[in-house]
Hints:
Blueprint: H1 8-20, H2 26-33, H3 39-52, E1 56-62, E2 68-75
Amino acid sequence: MTSSPQPPVLRDRVLAALRQQPRATVQQLADQTTAGESAIRQTRRALVQLERQGLAVRRPGRRPQGGRAPDLWQPTALTQP
């Protein structure tokens, strides 16, 4: 999947939210950073871009009973002040 680069403003807001709330889902980050119908899609694209740049890492979500849970995202050591 190729995604067009997100505007730096959104990417920066997503990264700032991720620093404040490590181990966040796309939905949680979208709620904090964007508004509108495409919030989750835009946030997911920004997170993928941050992951490619080495600034965020995705952890597969797991449920104790099995099944699929939302992935969790967290900043990498490169993003820590």
